[in-house]
What does this fold into?
Amino acid sequence: MLCPKKKRMDLSINEVQTVREKLQQESNHSSNGKSSSNHSRPPFPSIYSNLNVRQYRGKRAIDLTIGTVALIFCLVLFPFIAIGIKLSSKGPVFFKQKRTGQNGVVFMCYKFRTMKANAAKPSNGMPDITLEEDDRIFNFGKLLRLLNLDELPQIINVLKGDMSLVGPRPYPVKECSYWNSTFDDFFYRYAVKPGITGFSQVKGYRGGTYSVEHMRKRTDYDLIYVQKNTLSMDLLIILKTVTKMINLDTNAH
It folds into this structure.
């Protein structure tokens, strides 16, 4: 029974071209006669409205069930994490940021704060990305990132319906715009809800980067997930994520 799951997770990156073609065909088909939406969207992607929304039956139920259990776990850890943040850096416990979600809809994403409050941002016109050895991250924040615990508040986003447990990671609006202008197929990632973890993350592609090569591979894995996502794939991604957290093999920074 495990073999089919493994095969599904280990899809060759050579399948990406076929995936792109399928997604494009679906988007072209769904654009016929579709009217514009009143949702808040970034100014660049009118093409978002052509996306064919993809979600297997039962995915929302899985999000609510596991999300509720995870929320209890988060509430148990919250006092200790809050104290650690307050002792390490002045500022709020939580960090809120507008990010791009399914179909380009902008939502408020929650995290535990891991960076110094009012830290300087790039002034070169590039999106503000957290890179390796970023000196804006305080020590306790590094630990939270290593263990992926900084993402726990996004369980609230899952329960609200902004996100799913599994899906392509949501990027800040400006960063999303940047990569959308770099890759002509980047917007297909938003045919599904963004996730706390995803296929590209368990494959080792995570963390802030300006590398086009890195983001190309990450986007490829995201597109494979968009096309192939199933219940068994989601459960295996969750299992692999937890395993990586336990083994401190998250590639986080």
User: Anything to note?
Assistant: The chain has a mean pLDDT of 83. Strands lie at 94-100, 106-112, 164-166, 195-197. The chain has one domain: 39-246. The CA atoms of residues 37 and 49 lie 7 Å apart.
